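Hypothesis: this fold can be encoded by more than one sequence.
Test: take the structure tokens below, design a sequence, compare later.
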């Protein structure tokens, strides 16, 4: 759908591309090697309006659409998937639901600071024993007069270490499953909230992923996000948007694999000629390019439907499913095209190969996406 973008959208894309190429890409390998959170980019990202992409202008954001968010985020992910997911979770999984479900007071309190990158967001749904079965979560919520008390452990929390604001999903009664869950806005300095173990991951190593413990954490009644007992719906609706974000990450990684493979194939000589002259390489490039275009179109489609307020959960799942599998195939072929050089950290495809895997796992595994898609077909 590149062909259908407006002049302004192309300009937004071009701005993101230039920043990603000039500022983020040169730092990506080092951040990955040292597992350093990409906080150094926050001031410039905020300046560009990329820390509040879909936050309305009235709350200090850029007031852009989901499609425009995809255009920006693909460029960031192409340069560095760790930086990309750090920014994506902040925008899609935290600012997004505050914009959609927050009270006027909550919006005024949090959104302007999020857009300025003074507050970084994290989304706390998963737990050590409840990942795919999100409705089974055990983190407990008790209402005590004028405040809530939260107790439990959240796992796989992207941005945990650097976050200032956590959306925490907790239940008043696990037996009520989806109907017992509410969503809470929990500030970092709340007594009893502890950001614990940082995970040592295969890929997206510069994105921090932590356990978060909550022990008798008092949350003011005003910090309930949305209605009491409707937290699961908020979690799922937010993930519909988040899955567009991960599809975008996958497209960005896949495009980086293709770009590097085309360049390498033109330079690398074997048997007296550039390897680009071999049909075995040409066909790999052709397949990669075709799948990436298809994945990008699915992702744009889901974003446009979300902008139009139309049902798009299954479309977001299709985009994430196809794009994440595309990224993994593209990364595998990119390493193959680079041969031994693709297997060492000196060449970025090694990082892309490690980064690609997570897109098939987080914000709903490929198996969960197939459940969402097939339920939409069969209901
Ligand atoms: N939008 C709004 N509401 C929705 C919805 C959606 N997309 N999907 C479901 N709901 C509502 C349903 O309408 C239903 O509401 P009622 O009870 O009022 O009828 C309710 O939610 C329950 O829905 P289901 O019966 O479908 O619930 P389920 O228990 O069968 O679960 C599931 C469905 C698809 C398996 C879901 O649990 C799921 O998506 N699991 C995966 C969780 C996940 O993606 N986790 C990612 C963690 S976050 C992360 O990775 C972030 C990060 O840091 C990068």
């Amino acid at each position: 759908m590149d062909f259908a973008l407006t002049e302004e959208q192309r300009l937004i894309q071009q701005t993101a591309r230039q920043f990603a190429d000039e500022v983020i890409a040169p730092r990506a390998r080092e951040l990955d090697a040292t597992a350093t959170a990409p906080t150094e980019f926050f001031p410039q990202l905020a300046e560009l309006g990329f820390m509040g992409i879909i936050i309305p202008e009235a709350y200090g954001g850029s007031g852009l659409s989901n499609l425009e968010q995809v255009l920006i985020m693909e460029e960031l992910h192409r340069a560095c998937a760790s930086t990309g997911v750090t920014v994506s979770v902040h925008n899609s999984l935290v600012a997004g639901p505050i914009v959609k479900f927050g009270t006027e007071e909550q919006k005024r309190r949090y959104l302007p600071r999020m857009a300025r990158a003074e507050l970084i967001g994290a989304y706390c749904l998963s737990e050590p024993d409840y990942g795919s079965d999100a409705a089974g979560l055990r983190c407990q919520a008790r209402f005590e007069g004028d405040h809530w008390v939260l107790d439990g452990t959240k796992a796989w929390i992207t941005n945990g270490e650097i976050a200032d604001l956590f959306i925490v999903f907790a239940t008043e009664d696990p037996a009520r499953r989806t109907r017992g869950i509410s969503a809470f806005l929990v500030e970092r300095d709340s007594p009893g909230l502890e950001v614990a173990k940082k995970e040592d991951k295969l890929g997206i190593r510069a994105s921090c992923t932590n356990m978060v413990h909550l022990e008798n954490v008092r949350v003011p009644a005003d910090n309930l996000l949305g209605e009491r007992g409707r937290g699961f719906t908020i979690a799922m609706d937010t993930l519909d948007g988040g899955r567009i974000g991960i599809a975008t990450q996958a497209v960005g990684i896949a495009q980086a694999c293709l770009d590097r493979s085309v360049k390498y194939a033109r330079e690398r000589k074997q048997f007296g000629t550039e390897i680009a002259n071999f049909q075995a390489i040409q066909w790999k490039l052709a397949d990669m390019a075709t799948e990436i275009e298809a994945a990008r179109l699915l992702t744009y489609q889901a974003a446009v439907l979300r902008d139009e307020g139309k049902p798009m959960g299954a479309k977001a799942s299709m985009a994430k499913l196809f794009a994440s599998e595309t990224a993994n195939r593209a990364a595998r072929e990119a390493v193959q095209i680079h041969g031994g050089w693709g297997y060492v950290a000196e060449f970025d495809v090694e990082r892309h190969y490690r980064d690609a895997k997570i897109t098939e796992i987080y914000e709903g595994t490929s198996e969960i996406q197939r459940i969402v898609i097939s339920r939409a077909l069969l209901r």
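The mean pLDDT is 98. The chain has three domains: 2-119, 122-229, 232-378.
Hypothesis status: open.
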